[in-house]
Amino acid sequence: MRKPLRLAISALVASLLVTAHPPTQGGEAANAATRPSRPDIIVILTDDERRGTLHWMPSVWNQVVRRGIRYPNAMVPTSVCCPSRASILTGLFAHSTKVWSNGAGWRTFRKAGMEQRTVAVWLRRAGYRTGLVGKYLNEFGGSTKPPGWAIWHSFIGSNGSYYDYQLLNTNGDLTSYGSAPSDYSTDVLGRYAVRFLRSTPADRPLFLYFAPFAPHGPSTPAPRDAFVPSPLAPFSRPDFNESDVSDKPLWIRSLPVVSRAGVDAHRANQYRSLQAVDRAVHRIIEVQKARSRLHNTLLIVLSDNGEMWGEHRISGKFVPYDSATRVPLAIRWTKQWPARATDRRIALNLDIPVTVAAAAHATTGLVDGRNLLGSRPRAGFVLEAAAAHAPGGNGTNVTRPAYCGWRTLRYLYVRYANGRQELYDYAKDPFELTDRHGSGAYAQVKARLRHRTRVACVPHPPGYRWP
Q1: pTM, two decimal places
Q2: For a designed S-S bond to 380, which of 118, 153, 408, 413 qualifies (C-beta 3.0 to 4.6 A apart)?
Q3: pLDDT value, residue 179
Q4: How many CA atoms within 13 Å lie on the side-chain side of 181?
Q5: HSE (CB half, 13 Å, CA atoms) of 393?
Q6: Residue 393: what pLDDT?
Q7: Angle between the 260-290 and 185-199 helix axes, to the nearest 10 degrees?
Q8: In terms of Cα–Cα distance, which of 329, 279, 298 is closest to 49?
Q9: CB-based burial label for 378 (10 Å; 0-12, 13-18, 19+)
């Protein structure tokens, strides 16, 4: 064989090998000209993770929080899984997505045409390779992947699970998983996420939406973490099992006290279940490092909503109070943003897709969210929710009426469908112990917040009316 022909064949084989197997860090560096200038974008979305818990995950804390920007005032307008996830996908409030509850969430989302208006559609149109791994929307029952997603591995037919679940895969096949240790969902999803990263061509930017079920109840840990000692101190703060709830709405006054032992056991298992998420994040970061893409990766870690741990005798979410609406949020983008910074602006879940689109130079269409890459502050935002069962102590559920409200860094104002109002001043009362809506000293504040609420909470949640 002639030498030029042998060289040509060798070059072709080498080219095919590079395409079939992602290059190592050194190989990628040697071909830096082929890497896209736009960032890879990875969103890590946990389920029911409360603020102040990112330090439970050492890789997240050291590799994202300490090397990026922390948002201590990150919040959600509707503290329920499916409405919040709909906002994270579209950049719209619940009154725009029409998703008010978990049960019919995905069907409502699809019927409203929202699947054609997601961040995946925007980025796919802009040339990104997109992949969703984990929880999409509650009660997802599709037989094919939604528009915009190139790769798809999603829980189907349920909220999500740690064992005994099914995943709908990219080609429309269902894969069933049982109760073996290898079936633990966070680990399974982590392997799919790593496979997506490694299979993406070096010259194409990617968008990974990684959404494990943890630490959602029952907060089942991975087998290796089941007996890890919890480092958490017993939960204690002034609003835990609030002794005097006479100024609270009737639905709260009917709640029994919450079991402190139950809360602490739940928190310990949340801690344990998040360790598998942390290992998955570590692997994701290591793969991006091996691909020489970590420096230009926009990495976002957040939760869909917060969670009450017995404040005001409430367990769970579905309420307008701070512990349910405030979420952890940290963003790392080494190429663009400084490390160890704190941004104290109000940041909302619906700002995430708008920020992602701005980084990707993608067109969004009409959105309610704002780009966190910019400097524009948000003075306040609407709180809104349909009627729901709010969980209390001893497994008690009470009906919490639909509400509209307005939240700023200092104040929380809320009006329920039955006409009951609440007003809290966080500067004087950070634990929401004293409702001031009837105080004459706050009459002007209440009037201003009520007006903002009435203007912003449109359309109203189902069952809500203004007098």
Answers
A1: 0.91
A2: 408
A3: 97
A4: 5
A5: 19
A6: 62
A7: 20
A8: 329
A9: middle
- DSSP symbol at 223: G
Contact status, residue 54 vs residue 69, Cβ threshold 8 Å: no
- Cβ–Cβ < 8 Å for 342, 72: yes
Please check whether residue 189 is in contact with residue 21, taking contact to mean a CB–CB distance below 8 angstroms: no
Q: Considering Cα of 314, then 317, then 319, then 324, what sign does the dihedral take?
A: positive
Q: What is the mean pLDDT of each run of 10 residues along the chain (467 residues)?
A: 38 35 37 80 98 97 97 98 98 97 92 97 98 96 96 92 97 96 98 98 97 97 96 96 95 92 97 98 98 97 97 94 98 92 97 98 95 94 92 73 98 97 98 98 98 96 92
User: DSSP letters of 378-406?
Assistant: ---EEEEE--EEEEBGGG-EEEEPPEEEE
pLDDT the model gives residue 15 = 36
The Cα 94–Cα 17 span in angstroms is 47
Whether residue 66 contacts residue 339, with contact meaning beta carbons closer than 8 Å, is answered with yes
- 424: phi then psi, degrees, rounded to nearest 5: -125, 145
Q: Tokens representing 328?
A: 């952890």
Output the CA angle 445-240-457, nearest 5 degrees: 35
Residue 52 burial (CB count, 10 A): 12
Helix (H) or strand (E) segment spanning residue 75:
strand 74-75
pLDDT digits (tens, 9 = 90+) for 332-346: 999 998 888 999 999
Task: Give the integer Cα–Cα distance in Å for 39 and 308.
Answer: 36
Residue 420 is predicted with a pLDDT of: 97
Omega of the bond prior to 215 within 30 degrees of 0, cis?
Answer: yes
pLDDT of 8: 39
The values of phi and psi at residue 126, to 5°, are -85, 5
DSSP state of 454: H
* DSSP conformation letters of 247-310: TS-HHHHTPPPPPHHHHHHHHHHHHHHHHHHHHHHHHHHHHHHHTT-GGGEEEEEEES---EES
Burial-class residue 392 by CB neighbours within 10 Å (0-12, 13-18, 19+).
Answer: buried
What does the pLDDT read at residue 33?
59
For the chain, give me the number of helices (H) and strands (E)? 13, 20
